[in-house]
Amino acid sequence: MDTERSLNLRAAALSVLILVVLLGIWHVATVPAGGATAGAEADEYAKLMGKAAGTAKTDGLPTLPQMAETAARHLASPFYDNGPNDKGIGIQLAHSLARVGGGYLLAAAVAIPLGFVIGMSPLLYRALNPFIQVLKPISPLAWMPIALYTIKDSSASGIFVIFICSIWPMLINTAFGVAAVRRDWLNVARTLEVGSMRKAFEVILPAAAPTILTGMRISMGIAWLVIVAAEMLVGGTGIGYFVWNEWNNLSLTNVIFAIVLIGVVGMLLDLMFASLQKAVTWRE
Amino acid sequence: MASDAFLRVEGLAKRFPSGKGELTVFDKVDFGIAKGEFVCIIGHSGCGKTTILNVLAGLEQPSSGYVFMDGREVSGPGLERGVVFQGHALMPWLSVMGNVAFAVRSRWPQWNRAKVEAHARRFIELVGLAGAEHKKPAELSGGMKQRVGIARAFAIEPKMLLLDEPFGALDALTRGVIQDELLRIVQATHQTVFMITHDVDEAILLADRILLMSNGPNARIAEVVRNTLPRDRTRLTMHHDPQFYRIRNHLVDFLVHRSKLIQQGAADASSGASDGPLEVSPGLDADADASVPDVPAAPPVPKLIAVK
After folding, report:
1. How far are the Cα atoms of A48, A114, A221, B48, B281 from residue B278, in angstroms, in the given order?
2. Which of chain B's residues have a Cβ under 8 Å away from the Cβ of A282?
3. What three-state secondary structure class fits B193?
4. Is this complex's ipTM strictly greater than 0.85?
5. What are the pLDDT digits (tens) for A196-225?
6. Are B74 and B33 in contact (CB under 8 A)?
7. How many beta-carbon pairs under 8 angstroms link A with B?
8. What's phi and psi for B143, nearest 5 deg?
């Protein structure tokens, strides 16, 4: 117990150290060239470009203070809305999360019952397997033109893309988990004359729950990866659109801030599913 | 005897399609079990013991033959037969109480929660697990898990109990303790029991009659041994009775030598007329020992009496 704690402490200290080193490299790489070291030509060039030597750089990769200032500004008012091209980062994130949530829940509503049926029926398992195997490796973005053409709404198309990318891991894992429920438990249910609904919910579902949750966790990870790309294509709102928009504004500071935010939100989503997974996992 | 038995098995056979024809695991299996009787079946692996038990449980269909219980044909699994599975088959996501209550709710779906739990608790206490109700199977030892399996089977108050080598995976000490408990519960409840075992001593302790199966394929019930030890025998005193060794030697002799010879003999004369297995009471003095074929180089065959 004590060694465990000391290991945790040392790991945390090392993490902080690595972070400091990374920030240090960033700082050294982006520190503005001071007036003393800059040559006359550089001063001349700067004047030609409309800037006085020694002023803070305003383009390219930001310095650490600039980065901190941007992050503080975004986090201070995350929900402002100044028209279509200027919304708070919180609003953009909320749009992305709503699309992911919508597409993901739709996918779960289809994949889990369907996976249950496929898992229980060896006939369906084999009959549907070729379709699943062909559809699974298709990049979700490849569906975008079809989605835009049929749905004719960019926001709904985004939801569709999330739906199509998160359905496969859930479907495959549910079918596998249900098919792999131990014969013994099903025999117990049979000798006790347990009805099919009770068998499905009280034997098969808890037995397959850890496998199903694993599929749901993988799906959520993929959905969060895909939403950024989908929103870059679809535009309008969302964290992906924000990244693309700030790239067009040549504001790498905002892009970097958004990247970090995407990572943090993705991690939180994964942690949420990890704790759900832990709650349904049984040990023998 | 068989006609008025509580459980009646007639002409049971199991065949599987194999390479060039059919593989007969066992055939012509006939026996009966009276109400309140404890019957063990012993035989080598592959003779189809578990298949016979699964047919009695309704989990498997025989290739031919019938099983009748209480005058009705057994055609599928049912609540009037409680099964204790070889690998305990507890649901690991449910507690001890949850596992037993699952069975109780199946038997009496109209009961409320309190009644179900009170009933389940009674059987958890019966197998000596009071206080462990809220533990998950993962927190229990092998012996405790098997007790939960026994409590679950008893809790539905079945007309008959089927046990598939319930103590096979337990160490000798635990096994002895649970055997005593099973004996106590069965004697108290007058339960009818059919049990598979590999353990000769276990069979002599528990069973009123022991069915001996010859080796598979083409296995059959070669002999029925009546246990002549008094019914109040215990694990502690049983081995002081000289009769115990007569029965034990008879069983071991069967398993080591005769089970194989009978299989070969059956294959030679597979269409030979059979009037069912011979019922014997090893050790009782009589001179009717001619019915048992002599085995060369075998220990002296105990004297037998045919009561057919």
Report:
1. 115, 56, 68, 19, 10
2. 92-93, 136, 138
3. strand
4. no
5. 999 999 999 999 999 999 999 999 999 999
6. no
7. 58
8. -65, -40
